[in-house]
Amino acid sequence: MGVTLRLKGTVYQFFPYPTLVLFRFLRSNPPFSNGFLFVLFGLWCYIGIRSVLLSFTHDESLTFTIVCGSTDWIRTANNHFLNTFLTAVSANIWGYDEWALRLPNVLAFGLYALMGYRLLRPLPPISAILGIAILFFNPFVLDFFSLSRGYGLAMAFELSAIYYLLLFVRRRQMRHAWLSAIAGFLMLYGNFSFLVPYFALLLTLSITYIYYQYKQWRRNSEPHPPLNAQGLLALLASIRRDVSITPLLRLLGAVAIICLPAVGFSVLLRQKGELYFGGNTGFFADTVQSLLLSTAYQPHTHTWLLNGWGYLAGIFYIAIILLLLPYWRYWFRSMFGVLLLQLNICIVTCLVLHQLLGLLLPIERTALYFVPLTGLSVAYGLHTLLQIVRRQTSLSAIIRCAALSVVVVLGLNWARNANLSHTLTWRYDADTYKALSTLQQDYAPRYISDANPAKVAANWNLEPVLNYYRITRNFYWLDPIERDDMHSATYDYYFCFQQDMPNLACDDRQIAMVRHFDLAKTLLLVEMRQ
């Protein structure tokens, strides 16, 4: 049924169902939920605009070379399988523009927002707002939904896996456990650094399944036999007969099979020395502080400030545990208990892998999986804590004020660092396209023909993006940029960092500056010849 309009003998039929469905959905939703949705939609628009305007980055350009058929970077940590595959699909449809290669991660934010909305919607406003601030107003997290890297995809599927895990805990249906495992599988293939949270997810799933099977057995079993040898054997026989773990074993068996390629590839990366990005000092100094520094979106900050925030985070975590310790039986019957279990398994797994296998501790982008887990744990932990202290008005007010202060700090931090020009990790690539445009204008008066292309030397960090724009913008007046030493030959132009300038000057080359780029701290230099 639609709307019929007759105009000058012509009948026009309109079907306003999508609009009506959206209107009815918004009208039936509480105002807070509608505000939540509008905030998420605004952030999605912000991410989409950044995917168009941001200069391509170093690691994205390596993904581009894989999509174009190069085999140099396939067996490296830069190859995020699911992201590479979806980028290739998008490129075949839309072309090689920045937004087209980044489209899978931009769309992944829609899934991230949907699952975050579903997970936080049941909570009261104060807990939901704190969760929103941690999950969605982290500028470092939003960076990776605007880039063609696997981190955005992995975080979106991580939230999906957590959502179905909590749905399994609530309804205890195996189909939700399967959906959680499948979402975790996609998370893993989105980025192999998410192997730790996938292991934590499966272990949490197994523990909750066995726990509820055991609780069901205790409710249905006869009075327990006496605690002697014969009674113990009878008890074990009863558990084996009445507690079924076959569905769980089927799930874990299927997961083991489909995860073998990912595990094998991770072992290969370690043998090749590709797992070089990480910390070796300690979990607090490496993982916690690097995430706090990245959230502040500052390449450098005062050590005392960073340590202060780190200690506050640690004190808050320990305080939550101590305050809720007397209610440990309530934990496992709550969503908070399941989330806290998964978070702690992640932490312990990182420490065990570091001690036993010598793997580096996750830092910065390789530790991003802690952000969704921490945000949900804090939001559900706040809700649980407020339920426990609801009769203590003064304590409840203090807790609410502390939560709101964290929200304000995170909101101001995002407002200060939101931008359409650069990312934190690859800030040095912010002006690379501008540098090429400047180089083209400077070289145009001296350009002769395709037989005399400009020769450019670049710092190895800047080389991949230069070649990306050379190919996609048809800059064939420019020779392919190689990863050679800038001192190994004579070039027409040099594109480098400020710290490279003294070394070039020591080579007795007549170099003049064409342009200095303040944002990226890069220089475009030209060699003056007779």
Question: Briefly, what is this?
Answer:
Helices cover 63% and strands 6% of the residues. The protein has helices at residues 17-28, 31-53, 58-67, 81-94, 98-120, 125-136, 139-143, 150-171, 174-190, 195-220, 229-242, 246-271, 283-295, 303-324, 328-331, 335-356, 370-388, 393-417, 432-443, 463-472, 501-505, and strands spanning 3-7, 10-14, 456-458, 493-497, 511-517, 522-527.
Describe this entry's structure for a reader.
The protein is 63% helix and 6% strand. 36% of the residues are buried. Helix 3 packs across helix 4, helix 6 (125-136) packs antiparallel against helix 17 and helix 9 packs antiparallel against helix 10. The chain is mainly α. The chain has a four-stranded mixed beta sheet with strand order 3-4-6-5. Helix 20 (463-472) links the parallel strand 3 (456-458) and strand 4 (493-497). The chain has helices at residues 17-28, 31-53, 58-67, 81-94, 98-120, 125-136, 139-143, 150-171, 174-190, 195-220, 229-242, 246-271, 283-295, 303-324, 328-331, 335-356, 370-388, 393-417, 432-443, 463-472, 501-505; strands at 3-7, 10-14, 456-458, 493-497, 511-517, 522-527. It is elongated, with a radius of gyration of 27 Å. The model has no long low-confidence stretch (mean pLDDT 83).
